[in-house]
Design brief:
98% helix; 87 residues
């Protein structure tokens, strides 16, 4: 009888050790995935900030481009007007 009880205790102990190892492995993987997620979120935030900066930068360039076009139109108009009187 004692041997059967000892054998059962060994089996239960072995099963618990296996379950504990499996739990530890899953917990480790979950922690790694959480770190990966944090890095991804950090990357997304950085990309978003960079996109906003580019939008601000190109927005300024758009204003400069529009001013340059306006000045060019004025120069063309003046040129055309002067050309009309030269002929």
């Amino acid at each position: 009888m004692q041997e059967a009880g000892d054998e059962e205790k060994k089996e239960v102990s072995l099963a618990l050790k296996k379950l504990r190892k499996k739990y530890d492995d899953i917990h480790k993987i979950a922690g790694e995935k959480e770190e990966d997620l944090k890095l991804i979120r950090k990357g997304v935030t950085k990309i978003s900030e960079e996109e906003q900066q580019v939008e601000r930068d190109t927005g300024g360039a758009e204003v400069e481009t529009n001013l340059a076009k306006k000045e060019l139109d004025e120069v063309k108009e003046t040129h055309d007007f002067e050309k009309m009187y030269q002929n």
